[in-house]
Structure formats: structure tokens, C-alpha cells
Write a structure and sequence with these properties.
flat, binds iron/sulfur cluster, mainly alpha
Length: 97
């Protein structure tokens, strides 16, 4: 007996947002990272968090295991001595105080 295949409901994973229009109306919200590959765009807060996380002392004690933590640590190396991240981190600390 052959069963009919049930159709799956299509889920749209890409939101229907006009990204270019949003970026035009919020020019200060995102920065373009000069150090990450692919001209990564991220929020100023995310950049500051990456800089702060990269400079936490706990990342200096992690070796190659577990591998997923090692990959995360390697991903933050570019942020460790980044001038852009340092400026944004100090700016956001001032805002929080
Ligand atoms: S801290 Fe520097 S390298 Fe890291 S995301 Fe921000 S701009 Fe890019």
C-alpha cells in the first residue's frame, strides 16, 4: 500500500524585511568590522561584547579541548587587541554607568 506524501508547511526562515531601508534609516546601529572576514556587519554592542569577552583572562587557559570552545576562542583572537572594539567597549561602559 502506498501512502500519499504529506506536504510540509513551508517555513520562511528569511524575514520579509527591507534590510537596506532599515540600514539607511539607522546608519549608526551597525558597524563594519575591519578584522573579521567577509566584511562582517554587527551592532556596536555586539562588537563591544566581543572585545570584552576576548580580553577575559579565562580564555588564556583553554587549550585545544573541548574543540567547540577552542573554535570559539580562536574566533575571538581578532578582537583581542582591536582598537575599534576597545573604543566601543569604553563608550558602552560610560553609557551603562
Ligand atoms: S572587536 Fe574589532 S575585530 Fe572584534 S568584532 Fe569588533 S571591530 Fe571586529
Amino acid at each position: 500500500m502506498r501512502y500519499a506524501r504529506k506536504s510540509r508547511k513551508r517555513i520562511n526562515f528569511v524575514p520579509d524585511a527591507d534590510v537596506d531601508a532599515w540600514l539607511d534609516s539607522n546608519p549608526q546601529a551597525m558597524i563594519s568590522c575591519p578584522n573579521q572576514p567577509g566584511q562582517l556587519k554587527l551592532t556596536r554592542e555586539s562588537c563591544a561584547k566581543r572585545y570584552i569577552t576576548a580580553n577575559e583572562p579565562r580564555w588564556s587557559n583553554i587549550g585545544a579541548e573541548p574543540f567547540h570552545i577552542f573554535v570559539f576562542k580562536m574566533n575571538l583572537i581578532a578582537c583581542r587587541n582591536c582598537q575599534v572594539g576597545a573604543e566601543l567597549a569604553s563608550e558602552i561602559k560610560v553609557k551603562a554607568a
